[in-house]
Design goal:
- The complex is a heterodimer.
- Chain A is 34% helix and 28% strand.
- By secondary structure, chain A is of the alpha/beta class.
- Chain A has one domain: Rossmann fold.
- Chain A starts with a strand and ends in a 14-residue tail after the last helix.
- Chain A has a 6-stranded mixed β-sheet with strand order 6-9-10-3-11-12, with helices on both faces.
- By secondary structure, chain B is α/β, with parallel strands linked by helices.
- Chain B contains 7 helices and 20 strands.
- The radius of gyration of chain B is 21 Å and the shape is globular.
- Classes of the chains: A alpha/beta, B alpha/beta.
- The interface between A and B is medium-sized, with 31 and 23 residues.
- Chain B: This is Fe-S cluster assembly protein SufD.
- Chain B: Belongs to the iron-sulfur cluster assembly SufBD family.
Chain lengths: 254, 421
């Protein structure tokens, strides 16, 4: 098992958001998590990646046999967990290149690989840039600094390609994208599907799943997975929306 | 009155040189000065307590100094080395380009005397106590004259080293003639419990261009008080960068006085303070005439128990219409025990001006930190990158590549040694 989440409860600012979530993901699988706003979709990504203030109250998460919640944020990343942010952060003064080279080498070091030299890294970065259709000039700019919404999302996918994680969590990587950008993002993701790497695709809409075909679709509502199925479940959601979940799931939260 | 000041006044009485008439005036002013205390506005946040237990004594030592310590790879400069106020460089052996004259303060040529007459104590008429101390005691220093129209490619670097327990005073006087171009680097370093005052005065003529650097890299136990003062002639241009570490007591005053119209001054300042260091920068921008432009950017990182004081004054006189003046001070506080006092002072007496002033103190951006950690970068490395990025922007603006390449790793190493949170 790549990831095994059992009875996960988590609160933000004293309010319970995740209320007993269970999820098992095997290597190579793509799981889509859909649900209305406020269901706890983004919270799940943050809890798994270890963001401050998003600690689990109870429950467990085994990641490749290790207790995920025992690890620091950076250790989780070094162990192969990657979160593509819904709102990537701008960091002026730190170049995209320097940022990605540091992360790639931090993860390589953990794996026992030699760090990449500047030229080796540049070569890889150029390829990745091309793959997500970002001009090379973006490597020299401050991390996400002044990038458009679509450019930020593509920059996330570029990092995913370079970091070669075991488990990728894509948090609303489709939000704010036009169809062309959506395709670039989806192609980037699909290029990384190698039968071993697993994905959690978090999305509000079915649209992205036309391009990234999931093995499983889960509906998250009010902090729990209320329904699971195959790709056809996503189509069903598109037709019916989330109204069938009842008013409770429409409550807004963090 | 401190014992030290009484002693200074006593010593000043026995300084006899060609500058004695001017020194005498300064001494008279000094004799009427009060020792600054908490209620002295200009020294409000900077305590002069270190003078109570001063270890440094005047007089030179035969300290051996390894000049390699000051070598900057790729920098081809004309170096004037002072150790404890004694000039180690034989100026007569330097091959100076046409248009550049350099004189030791204690062996001036006739031309140097005339330059000093225009510059010494003239660029900043109102000097604080330590400026006056420097006026009366600084017998060591250089007078640099760049002739009208001369373009001096090679940077002139004044290296001013003070060793442990030595007190010294140093002065730099520079005149750039009409349409003259030059680069001057004031490279100061104090070891151990040294005590040093170092002031520099620059007069920029019509359309003169000066690239200026001041590095005040003193040890934790040092006391360093100094300043660089600029008088901007018509259409002159200044690009200045000041980089300071803190020390037991570091105080620098930078004054830019727009005396001629259409002058442009850019002043960047970086300070990186650790442990119990104290760094105080007072900058004063005087726009006395119309159509002047000043861009000032000061950025500081304060860690451990260190303390930064930034006082940024912009004074726009009634006649100085069409002035553009921008001053921005940004600080990053790495430690809850650190302290930053930043104070803007705007005095605008003209109505048709553009003037902006901003001062901020920020803590670590938690969201950016989380983002970096989530990419596997260690916490310590992420903090280095995040915070160093903040001053890196100013390092990158330094025109001289050799100095950028030298300073960047130097500051980074210092920064990496700082305790975060």
């Amino acid at each position: 098992m790549m990831l095994s989440i059992k009875d996960l409860h988590a609160s933000i600012d004293g309010k319970e958001i995740l209320k007993g979530l269970n999820l098992d993901i095997k290597p190579g699988e793509v799981h889509a998590i859909m649900g209305p706003n406020g269901a706890g979709k983004s919270t799940l990504g943050y809890v798994l990646s270890g963001r401050d203030g998003y600690e689990a109250d109870s429950g467990t998460a085994q990641f490749n046999g290790a207790d995920l919640f025992d690890l620091e944020v950076e250790e989780r990343a070094q162990a192969g967990l990657f979160l593509a942010f819904q709102y990537p952060v701008e960091i002026p003064g730190v170049s995209n290149m320097e940022f990605m080279k540091e992360s790639v080498n931090a993860i390589r070091e953990k794996r026992g690989d030699d760090p990449l030299s500047a030229s080796e890294f540049l070569k890889k970065a150029k390829e990745a840039c091309k793959q997500v259709d970002l001009p090379l000039a973006f490597l020299k700019r401050g991390v996400n600094e002044g990038f458009s919404g679509g450019e930020k999302k593509r920059n996330e996918i570029m990092q995913m390609i370079l970091l070669e994680p075991n488990l990728c969590i894509l948090d609303e990587s489709d939000s704010g994208l036009d169809v062309d950008a959506l395709q670039v993002v989806a192609n980037g993701v699909n290029s990384q599907r190698d039968g071993k790497r697993s994905f959690i695709v978090v999305t509000h809409y079915q649209r992205l799943l036309d391009y990234i075909e999931p093995d499983y679709v889960h509906i998250l509502a009010d902090g729990k997975i209320v329904k699971s199925g195959d790709a056809s479940l996503a189509k069903e959601v598109e037709k019916t929306g989330y109204a069938w979940l009842g008013a409770k799931a429409e409550e807004a939260d963090a | 009155m401190s014992q030290w000041l009484a002693d200074v006044i006593d010593r000043a009485g026995s300084v006899q040189d060609w500058l004695s008439p001017v020194r005498g005036e300064a001494l008279a002013t000094l004799q009427n000065q009060q020792w600054p205390g908490r209620r002295t506005e200009a020294w409000r946040y900077t305590s002069l307590h270190p003078f109570d237990a001063l270890l440094a004594q005047p007089g030179s030592t035969s300290a051996q100094v390894d000049s390699r310590e000051f070598a900057i790879e790729g920098l081809d400069s004309l170096d004037l080395v002072f150790v404890n106020g004694e000039l180690q460089t034989d100026i007569s052996s330097l091959s100076l380009p046409t248009g550049l004259s350099i004189s030791a303060l204690d062996e001036p040529t006739d031309n140097a005397r005339s330059v000093a007459g225009q510059v010494f104590t003239q660029v900043k008429p109102e000097r604080h106590l330590f400026g006056l101390v420097n006026d009366v005691l600084a017998t060591s220093g250089v007078i640099i004259d760049i002739a009208d129209g001369a373009s001096i490619e090679t940077p002139v670097r004044v290296i001013n080293l003070v060793t442990d327990k030595v007190e010294s005073h140093n002065r730099v006087l520079v005149r750039l003639g009409k349409q003259a171009t030059a680069t001057v680097i004031e490279h100061g370093s104090g070891d151990g419990a040294s005590m040093n005052t170092a002031f520099a005065e620059y007069q920029l003529g019509y359309e003169a261009r000066l690239e200026h650097y001041r590095f005040a890299l003193h040890s934790a136990d040092a006391i360093h008080i100094g300043g660089s003062h600029f008088q901007m002639g018509e259409k002159s241009r200044l690009n200045s960068t000041l980089v300071g570490y803190g020390s037991q007591l570091s105080r620098l005053d930078v004054d830019i006085h727009h005396a001629g119209e259409h002058a442009f001054a850019k002043f960047n300042n970086i300070y990186l303070l650790a442990e119990n260091e104290h760094f105080d920068l007072h900058s004063t921008i005087e726009h006395a005439v119309p159509n002047g432009t000043t861009e000032e950017n000061a950025r500081g990182i304060v860690g451990d128990n260190a303390k930064a004081v930034f006082n940024g004054r912009i004074h726009i006189h009634p006649d100085a219409q069409k002035t553009l003046a921008e001053l921005n001070n940004r600080n990053l506080l790495l430690s809850r025990r650190g302290q930053i006092n930043t104070k803007p002072e705007l005095e605008i007496y003209a109505d048709d001006v553009q003037c902006a002033h901003g001062a901020t103190v920020a803590e670590i951006d938690d969201e950016a930190l989380y983002y970096m950690l989530s990419r596997g970068i260690s916490r310590s490395q992420a903090l280095v990158m995040l915070n160093f990025g903040f001053v890196q922007e100013l390092i990158e603006q330094m025109p001289n590549k050799a100095l950028r390449d030298w300073l960047q790793p130097k500051l980074k190493t210092r920064f990496e040694g700082m305790e975060v949170k």
